[in-house]
Description:
Low-confidence stretches of chain B: none
Mean pLDDT of chain A: 87
Strand content of chain B: under 5%
Number of helices of chain B: 6
Number of strands of chain A: 0
Radius of gyration of chain B: 22 Å
Distance between the termini of chain A: 55 Å
Helix content of chain A: over 70%
Order of helices and strands of chain B: HHHHHH
Shape of chain A: elongated
Distance between the termini of chain B: 73 Å
Oligomer: heterodimer
Mean pLDDT of chain B: 80
Number of helices of chain A: 3
Structural class of chain B: mainly alpha
Largest sheet of chain A: none
Helix content of chain B: over 70%
Number of strands of chain B: 0
Structural class of chain A: mainly alpha
Order of helices and strands of chain A: HHH
Amino acid sequence: MIGIDWYLALSAILFTIGVIGVLIRRNAIVIFMCVELMLNAVNVSLVSFSAFHGDITGQILVFFSLAVAAAEAVVGLAIIIAIFRNNLSVDITKVNLLRW
Amino acid sequence: MEIYAFVLLAVLAIASALGMILNKNTVNSALLLVINLVTIAGIYLLLQAQFLALIQILVYAGAIMVLFLFVIMLLNVEEEEKLFDKFRVKYLLAFLLGVVIFGQILYSLGGVTDMLPEISSDMLYVGTVEAVGEVLYTEFLYAFELTAILLTAAVVGALMVAQYKVKKTEDSE
């Protein structure tokens, strides 16, 4: 029987990889996928807490985080398409709309 | 048996996540993320959350990743040039921040490691659709309905943003 600390360590590693990906990549779509990776890492720890505490609320929270992730992906990809139409690029270093 | 399955899934998940952020081809990144999502569904199965494992594959690997792939193909983005062609301060900062976050999480894990619970016996058979639905449609009904409104608003908003045509401004002439 493996303990909860293994699951939490896996979640921590995946979250860290997601953070590093957001920081080093320049393609906006890949940055979005890294955000999804971080959401998934948090979901893993929610499910493991739920399983080890005997409380199903954690799984319900994962359900809601999934729904929010879907909404976020839809809106984010629409924004990426809009930016691509104006700039012909998804390289975030070339987007300077909100820069001063 | 369980520990072998866990180690296999964890190694696959970490390797595919690393491959995702280090691959310079966007399509390959998306496919590696699909592998990652499927292995996480396997982790959910190990944790007795069968319903979530199915939802994970259906919604994430099925719907969201297809959307990602569709956008990648639609935009036909050029490959990023080499990721680590030259040393940048940005990469150093990224890895330092990653190390700090990871250390922080591990430290907070180490602090509570004695009082972590064992897998509780009444959770062994409750990850089913019945158990999730029973709580979801009673205690969390309002949140569930708010989720429906959120998704509708997201779809309408995405249509608005993506269909917006850039009008030629009059004063530019």
